[in-house]
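Hi there,

I know you've been waiting on this one. I reran it after we fixed the sequence typo, so this is the corrected version. Both the input and the resulting structure follow.
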Amino acid sequence: MKKAENMYLKSLKPEFLFIVLLLYTLPMAASIDNGNIHFTLTNFTSDTPSIEFENDATASGGAIELTTNQNGKALIYRVGRATYYQPMHLWDNSSGNLRLADFTTQFSFAINSLNKSFGDRAEDDSRADGFAFFLAPYGSKIPPNSGGACLGLQTCDSDANSKFVAVEFDTFRNLWDPPTMSDHVAIDLNSVKASFHPVEWLWNDIENGGKVDAFITYNSSTKNLSVLLRDAGDLTRQNSSSLSAILDLSLYLPEWVTFGFSGSTGRLSELHTIYSWDFSSSLQVSMNPTSNPPNVAPGPP
């Protein structure tokens, strides 16, 4: 089952919208309990112990820069990841009754093309490529030759060995994308070339690096993965983008997963910045779980 739509916030009752957004923005103490994870991060430095930076991803000005920000200039042929240092326990089958985790995440981000207004042609005044929030097998690293359109998620030459689930925020229309769409949001399953129906991202302010709030939830009972975007701090915006899909994540991912952000540029460039990140997961497991957590380096107390 697939579902993709543009959702108009004007059609929602104001009190309902307020409650939904309030639930997402309540502060959470950073903690890990029986494989469940809860944290709120609003300031990032190179010494932030809970974030692992890979390749070109760095911390700068209290934010995460996925593809290098060189004094306000975007660089070409960059790829970077920023992931949480602990794995998430995504599912458990020790009782013979498969249990999936519920999780919610909210992050504030900006894609800044530095006044480049096109994302559908390989010219100097165009922009590319985007970034994704992703889940992959624990220990996953950036594959070789995965820059540009592949967003650091898979080798561009082949997706035969790819294993990930991602929500992509794509700013360039590639050959496999819908012909009428440049900037778009989509759910990727093991390949950036095979997305659930993408949603056109019409109202963005990528030219000026406008901030956006993203809300992603997974309901284990309904197996619904849903995505909502809105302007950061703006509850009156009439047009917001939403996307959802019914997915059994245990069919695509192992029991323990790495999660975080991955972004890239190719011959064209832009900045990919994460300003804050909230995350919460919950999985009820039996007394004898299917497997123990992988060994990880010590992180924050």
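Quick highlight: Confidence is low (pLDDT under 50) at residues 1-29.

Best,
R. S.
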